[in-house]
Design brief:
The chain has 240 residues and is an alpha+beta fold. Strands 4-3-2-1-7-6-5 form a seven-stranded antiparallel sheet, with helices on one face. It has a seven-stranded antiparallel sheet with strand order 11-10-9-8-14-13-12. It starts with 12 loop residues before the first strand and ends in a 6-residue tail after the last helix.
Length: 240
Amino acid sequence: MHEQLEPPSQPIFSGYLWRQSGQAKGAPNSKKWVRRWFSLRPDNCLYYYKTEDDSQPVGAMIMAKHTVDLCPVDVGKPFAFKVDSGEGIPMYVAADSDDLANRWLQLLRQAAAQDNQWLDKSARCLYQSPTNILRPDCFGYLLKLGSRWCGWSKRYCVLKDACLYFYQDANSKSAFGMACLHGYKVASMSANASGKKNSFEIIPPETKLRHYFFCTESEMDKKRWISALEYSIDRWIKSG
């Protein structure tokens, strides 16, 4: 029996928070805080936008297995807390009041403690052949650049619910990898930039996440993939 995921509906909780981001200008030992619109969605993913009117997030974080803890006062903002995966750089955010901070803490901790339905179902698709993935958003062969810029490899790819599965070929019994694309953006690339015609990139919301590069056999196929990727990612991040 095939399972069909439905995109998240209304957010669980949304509002403005201050996010610590980089160094403040003229103060190399301090961090600057920027105001962002945050939205915790039913897929247990925390998205953040420049403003509440934006439809495309500037970042996203899957809350599964994250810790959420209050910060000491010397972090630079009152009512601040840390969201940490235990790997990479944690995210520091701050609310405008103690009540709002406690509300965010409660909901984010609940999201972190729950199983992620989207991740669980996506992981199960790893063990399916390409033809057994029901109603994919796109499929076909792509040239994929290796993680260490070590050359291009031809892969059969299947896109489903903002997740891209990689197969050795169309007859493979299972995928050898997948890319979860919450919060990613898709952009066309010039041949000068990539060294290949008909190339495009999938850009992560955070620098610590994997950056993907692909190319297709034709300009038409490139447009097909870019359109499908934008649709597949966007249907999971609409702020509702």
